[in-house]
């Protein structure tokens, strides 16, 4: 099984599994933060994840979600709905 080595602020070096870690990506998916609960002291930890760390965590199978600090506006929803009505391939809209 894959293990991820990281550091707890109180306990020092610890080893986790991909299921023990969650990743929050910023829009664009290159950087973010990862979270875990230390298996020794049970304190919740949050660490920054640069592009290298993000790549490693994703490669090991860590679950992720993209965090958008700005919610979608009503205008964006209306524009998307209008585009769906005229676009022959709606999946193209999601690629942009």
Per-chain topology:
Blueprint: E1 4-8, E2 12-16, E3 21-25, E4 32-37, E5 44-49, H1 51-59, E6 63-66, H2 74-86, H3 91-95
Parallel strand pairs: 3-6
Antiparallel strand pairs: 1-2, 3-4, 4-5
Task: Please describe what this structure looks like.
This protein is an alpha+beta fold. It has three helices and six strands, in the order E-E-E-E-E-H-E-H-H. It has a domain at 4-69. The chain has helices at 51-59, 74-86, 91-95, and strands at 4-8, 12-16, 21-25, 32-37, 44-49, 63-66. Strands 5-4-3-6 form a four-stranded mixed beta sheet. It has a two-stranded antiparallel sheet with strand order 1-2. A hairpin with a 3-residue loop joins strand 1 and strand 2. The model has no long low-confidence stretch (mean pLDDT 90).
- Computed Rg: 18 Å
What amount of the residues lies in strands?
25-35%
Helical/strand content category: alpha+beta
N-to-C series of helices and strands? EEEEEHEHH
Distance between the termini: 36 Å
Number of helices: 3
Sheet of most strands: 4 strands, mixed
**What does the average pLDDT come to?**
90
Fraction of residues in helices? 25-40%
Number of E-state strands: 6
* Shape call: elongated
- With strands numbered from the N-terminus, the spatial order across the biggest sheet is 5-4-3-6
Unreliable runs, pLDDT <50, ≥5 residues? none
């Amino acid at each position: 099984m894959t293990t991820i080595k990281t550091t707890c602020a109180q306990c020092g070096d610890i080893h986790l599994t991909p299921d023990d870690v969650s990743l929050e990506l910023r829009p664009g998916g290159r950087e973010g933060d990862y979270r875990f609960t230390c298996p020794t002291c049970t304190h919740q930890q949050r660490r920054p994840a640069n592009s290298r760390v993000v790549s490693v965590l994703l490669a090991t199978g860590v679950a992720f979600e993209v965090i958008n600090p700005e919610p979608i506006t009503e205008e964006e929803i209306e524009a998307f709905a209008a585009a769906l009505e005229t676009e022959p391939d709606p999946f193209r809209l999601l690629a942009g």
